[in-house]
Amino acid sequence: MSILETGRKVLELEAEAIRNARARLDERFSKAIDILYNSRGRVVITGMGKSGLIGRKIAATMTSTGTPAVFLHPAEALHGDIGIINAEDCVIAISSSGETDEVVRLLNYIKRLRIKLVALVGDPSSTLARQSDVFIDCSVEQEACQIGLIPSTSSTLTLAMGDAICIALIEKKGFTESDFHRFHPGGTIGKKLLKVKHLMHSGAELPLVDASVSMTEVIAVMDRHRFGLAIVLKDNQVSGVITDGDLRRLLLKGCDFSSCRAADCCSANPKKVAPENLAVEALRILEENAITSLLVMDEKDDLLGLLHLHDLWRTEMI
Q1: Sheet-wide strand order for 229-234
Q2: Is 182 a member of any domain?
Q3: Do 18 and 109 fall into the same domain?
Q4: Distance between alpha carbon 283 and the CA centroid of its chain, in Å?
Q5: Which residues contact 193 (CB under 8 A, 6 or more apart)?
Q6: Domain boundary among 121, 141, 175
């Protein structure tokens, strides 16, 4: 078998294991989600070896999506760390065989405190499966390696099942983009989840002019606020905008700025964005229209603020 064929075989075996697990997923999955959702404490995840590494990833995903979770190494648990589990917690135990000694030895403590136990196991008839409140079948027909011993297909399936649990749990909790941003304030994810309302200028920062004022006054307001535009109001509602580009075109036409009024020179129907829109959506609108500013308006077309391209640059989003 060529190296390329080996790679394809591994991917097919692991994909097939996930397809098979999908087909046999049943109400036990729903029961497991209910246990995790109703827990008043943390989710304590435990497992040895590769199962432990998968457990750490599941714990990290849960923690970052609003479910407090912690990984407990089962061997360390037997030497004092088991005290991290309290009666309000629930436990996810991971074991391909369901007979991992260090994990099985934790069962007495878990049962004594009447802690709910969810098991991810590769053998539905194992001790861990039988002693759990609910188990999810993570069995595979074979590992992807030639000797059939290296955790590969089984660890991939367990990782995918962990993702399924985490996603189902956040849907049940109604976890939103705003919640996600709260747990990811930094880095690329945090920047992508910024909303227009987090970046917009408002109040005294806005370059507002009344429709009746002369263009000379409009220019003075534009120079003072440095956004490259003025927002023209008529009866306290947005009538249009006047941009630097508008000024150049008016100048070429020979406009007398001292006698022309803002109402006569503004461009109606300026581009706008809602305050709840993501900043990346605002950036797309700016790029598609080759403009540098957007008015931030609510569903009633009331002016709330102004978003400038420089505000997006400062986030290092672009």
Answers
A1: 208-210, 229-234, 237-243
A2: no
A3: yes
A4: 19
A5: 177, 180, 181, 184, 278
A6: 175
224-228 CB contacts, 8 Å cutoff, 24+ apart: 227/201, 227/293, 227/306, 227/308, 228/292, 228/293, 228/308
Contact (CB, 8 A) for 185 and 198: no
Q: State the pairing for strand pair 272-273/116-121.
A: unpaired
207 shares a domain with 158: no
CATH number at residue 275: 3.10.580.10
Tens of pLDDT, residues 282-292: 888 999 999 99
Q: Each residue of 239-253: pLDDT tens digit?
A: 999 999 999 999 898
Among the listed residues 304, 292, 318, the one whose alpha carbon sits nearest the alpha carbon of residue 196:
304
Whether pTM > 0.85 for this model: the answer is no
Give the DSSP H/E element, type plus range, for residue 44. Answer: strand 43-47
Structural domain contains residue 116: yes
Q: Is 260 exposed, middle or buried (0-12, 13-18, 19+ CB in 10 A)?
A: middle
β-bridge mates for residue 47, sequence order:
94
Band the pLDDT of 180: cuts 50, 70, 90. Answer: low
Q: How many angstroms separate the CA atoms of 37 and 313, rounded?
A: 40
Question: Between vectors from CA 44 to CA 38 and to CA 50, what angle results, nearest 5°?
Answer: 130
Can you give the pLDDT at residue 101? Answer: 95
- Tell me the per-residue pLDDT of 102-159, one tens digit each, with 9 for 90 and over: 999 999 999 999 999 999 999 999 999 999 999 999 999 999 888 877 889 999 999 9
Range of the domain at 277: 196-314
Rounded to whole angstroms, the Cα distance separating 117 from 129 reads 10
Query: Tokens 């649990």 correspond to what residue?
Result: 165
232 Cβ contact partners less than 8 Å away, ≥ 6 residues apart = 209, 210, 211, 218, 238, 239, 240, 241, 242, 262, 263, 266
Total of domains in the chain = 2
**Highest-confidence segment of 173-177, 238-242, 313-317:** 238-242
Length of the chain: 318
